[in-house]
Automatic annotation (TrEMBL), chains A, B:
Entries under InterPro entries matching the protein: Homeodomain-like_sf (IPR009057), HTH-type_TetR-like_transc_reg (IPR050109), HTH_TetR (IPR001647), Tet_transcr_reg_TetR-rel_C_sf (IPR036271)
Taxonomic source organism: Saccharothrix variisporea
The UniProt record lists the keyword Nucleotide-binding: no
DNA-binding region(s), chain positions: 36-55
Protein name, per record: TetR family transcriptional regulator
Domain HTH tetR-type: residue ranges: 15-73
PANTHER family linked to this entry: HTH-TYPE TRANSCRIPTIONAL REGULATOR BETI, HTH-TYPE TRANSCRIPTIONAL REGULATOR RUTR
Domain of life: Bacteria
GO molecular function: DNA-binding transcription factor activity; transcription cis-regulatory region binding
């Protein structure tokens, strides 16, 4: 391996700092959504000057943290919805993983809602939603999901029940550990073609 | 019938005026949620002085209009959920009637949301919701509705899908005339016990 030039070493340092900042920011925000930049710099082991050199504003940092979380979520969800899974099985896996991801990122969502424009925050939901749409299309084609109701409505069922379950957990009427199972059972019942 | 005394006649006049004002107010608000008191007095055929003698504020008038609409809705819904109907049939009737009532009172809900405290506006939803709860309890007891998911969650399914359908209609993704059927089909599928 060739010795690094000064320029190369500076770039490697910068990349390592950016990774450390994004990791620390996700940890800090997950503990406390309104955590400030000073606390994040400290947790990342960098100076405030270094932090602001890479992320000129809190808005900018939260946007990057969200972006990275969305990318990771997309990778996880893609393995769950692979075309060789039965659509009902894939939907159950998608619900379980999607639920865990959303639950794990609840404080990040709060921070994002407080900091970023709504369209940017929706990128997270859209990551799940696009895969749901694709999966429902495939399930209808294969006869696993019903075709007597519109496709858009089946997607709406998924999304509104997911949202309702989150609210029920927050209100203390549904246990977090039961939620994914309750959701999967309900959504599959609603999407399965009527018998007879 | 005895001749009315002056006092009796005044009371009869007042009652007639109140009915006319409430009828006119519902009509006016249904056309235009932010209609003003002058337009309502004119539509009711009474003076502004008479209007304000009975309803000292717009807030007061909207509250009474909402209250009367809720009472009427409760009467309609009670005939649909009678104990001698099969629970699935009663739920379908409740959804169709409830949907028509909510659709017919959409502008009233807007006016109420703009004028009254949220708890007062919820009285409308609670009128539907209490009957849904009772019906789901009966359906679970009779084996028509599933018992493998919590009762509170079945009520949440009903409520959140109703809400979602209203949003889909507003967004132009679901036709108003299809909504009640789509809702009834979806909710019954979600509430029916799993076979096997």
């Amino acid at each position: 391996m060739p010795r690094m030039t000064g320029e190369g070493r500076r770039r490697a340092d910068a990349e390592r700092n950016i990774e450390a900042i994004l990791d620390a920011a996700l940890d800090c925000i997950s503990d406390q959504p309104d955590v400030n930049m000073t606390a994040i710099a400290k947790a990342a082991g960098v100076s405030r000057v270094t932090l602001y050199a890479h992320f000129p504003s809190r808005h900018d940092l939260v946007a990057h943290v969200l972006d990275r979380a969305v990318t990771t979520a997309a990778e996880v969800l893609d393995t769950e919805t692979l075309d060789d899974h039965d659509p009902a099985e894939a939907l159950t896996r998608l619900i379980r993983s999607g639920w865990q991801i959303l639950a794990g990122h609840r404080n990040l969502m709060t921070a994002a809602h407080d900091t970023l424009p709504p369209a940017q925050v929706r990128s997270f939901h859209n990551t799940v939603l696009r895969r749901v749409e694709k999966l429902i299309t495939r399930g209808r084609r294969q006869g696993t999901f019903r075709t007597d109701l519109p496709q858009t409505w089946l997607v709406t069922i998924f999304y509104s029940l997911l949202h309702a379950a989150a609210e029920e957990v927050t209100a203390g009427r549904l246990r977090q550990r039961d939620a994914a199972d309750v959701l999967a059972t309900t959504i599959l019942s609603a999407l399965t073609p009527p018998t007879r």
